[in-house]
Amino acid sequence: MSHEQASYLELLARGAPAEAYDRPVLLARAGGAGPETLSGLEHAKQLALRVRAELEGRRRREAELSALFETAHDLSGLRDLDAVLRAIVQRARSLLGTEVAYLSLNDPAAGDTYMRVTEGSVSARFQQLRLGMGEGLGGLVAQTARPYVTDSYFDDERFRHTRAIDSGVRDEGLVAILGVPLMLGSQVIGVLFAADRRARVFEREQVALLASFAAHAAVAIDTANLLAETRNALAELERANAIIRDHSAVIERASGVHDRLTELVLHGGGVHDVAGAVSEVLDGTVEFAEPDAPSLAGVEFSGADGHAVRHADDWVVAVSAGGELLGALVLRGHPGLDPVDRRTLERAAMVTSLLLLARRSAGEAEQRVRGELLDDLLDAPGRDPRLLRERATRLRADLDAPHVVLAARVDAPPAGGGSDRAAADRQRLWSAASHLAATRHGLAATRDGGTVLLLPMGPGDSAPELARQTAKHLGGTLREPVTVGASAPVEAPAGTPGSVAAAYAEARRCVEALRLLGRSGEGAAAPDLGFLGLLLADTGDIEGFVHRTIGPVAGYDERRGTDLVRTLDAYFASGMSPARTKDALHVHVNTVAQRLERIGRLLGEDWQSPARALEIQLALRLHAISGAVAR
């Protein structure tokens, strides 16, 4: 081997560029070497270049295999899909020696493909591109599932150009582009690209290499999807297990409350004991509310089915029996209530209704005794007062205190129920009234198709107010309109038993008057009915009627020395004509107008309405006849 031939080994050893292999031939030719020597050197150069190409190819394949191995390693420890895809795109760009590499994924919902990862890109518009199926080189690859390569994108007519895609490619400055499909089985899920900003030819080996990276990318995406599905499935299982655990706990709590409620019933527990037990189980506050309690205002119970209903932030379940509302259980502080807890609350309401019915049954005997005592007061006024007091004491009633007699009637029509429905309504009314009487230490009895009550008056009570309260309470309990009329107070029923019958007659007249006036479902006493009350009341409180009707005017005259009462009388006598009134009074018409304006301020704006005018005229006549003076 000559010295010149040995120099090729040195070039191979130090990895010299291809152009350096021409130097030994040039030096030999310059030194006057013969044709044989030059031919030998040329042959050695070709052999050296072939060896160099083989070594270069092996180095390139080694780098490719190393990159593919690293990619496979990344996939084996996949934690972040985006990180793996970025690594694939970076390695593809590096090995293919391109300026840009990027990856797009198909969007089945939108029917297009979009950029997922870019490497070497500088254009925001390009990074946000979306390609319709068949649009641009990438859209064509996604549609046909075949690799496509172009050495001059804008001169290539094999794919459909669009303004949006061409603008993005132009912003990025790309010229040569290679795209290979990402395949899962026979389905294309995206495209992997390598691109340059100058014209170049991609070799078959480079296409195959990019396809290998695309296969790894597809595997990474599939693995990530499987991991996501597995995580979702595990999460669903965890949620299902949590639900099962919660339901098991709820069932255990429900079983516990069932045992506690049974024990309460067996040991004579009360309504509030039931509410306390359920409060502990449901982790809230359960209270028993009477039918007319303010907390039940606006609550619409779904019939008598006993289902809990939502009311604001509370849960309410009716406590009822036979269509009668006995009250309700109200759960506070527990806005979220699952079906099992709702059933627990509803079962507690059922137990409460049974306790109330048991208590009511035990009290019916006492109620009958109360009714018999009231019947004797009404029907046998000559009974010995001492015996009446003894019987009342056993019932914890004080018949020497002031009482009011109230007559109550259910005003709901039979609605096809006939006499059976009317009898049931009377029974329910008596039951509710008896309970109220026992609570108030009074008496109650059925009478004349309705119920009569004898209730004591507390401090600040009045007959009209007792009538309104009783109508509201009984109507709320029965969930039907109940009309209640009240008598004037009876000072001591035991001392004057005959006064109870007279007061009951007055209360019945008030009930009938309310019904005739279209005020069914209300409660009232004679003073509430104006001059009509004078006709209904045996006492005939004329002075009180005059005072309530024209007292403000008469009082003003007394304090100021004015003449408003006479002006009012002349005004009505003149047919409510100011002109004729001023002639009757011999004053100026402006004076009449001023006095009428003052009267309006004292009596109210509706004082000239027909109903008010009639009452005022009657009061003026009674005032003139009796000489009553308002105080």
Please tell me about this protein's structure:
The mean pLDDT is 78. This protein starts with a helix and ends in a 5-residue tail after the last helix. By secondary structure, the chain is of the alpha+beta class. A six-stranded antiparallel β-sheet has the order 3-2-1-6-5-4. A five-stranded mixed β-sheet has the order 12-13-11-14-15. Helix 2 packs antiparallel against helix 3 (35-76) and helix 12 crosses helix 13. It is 57% helix and 15% strand. It has five domains: 3-59, no CATH class; 78-230, Beta-Lactamase (2-Layer Sandwich), CATH 3.30.450; 268-294 and 302-352, no CATH class; 380-536, 2-Layer Sandwich (Alpha-Beta Plaits), CATH 3.30.70; 543-630, no CATH class. It is built from 20 helices and 15 strands. It is elongated, with a radius of gyration of 52 Å.
Give keywords:
57% helix; 631 residues; alpha+beta; Beta-Lactamase; six-stranded antiparallel beta sheet
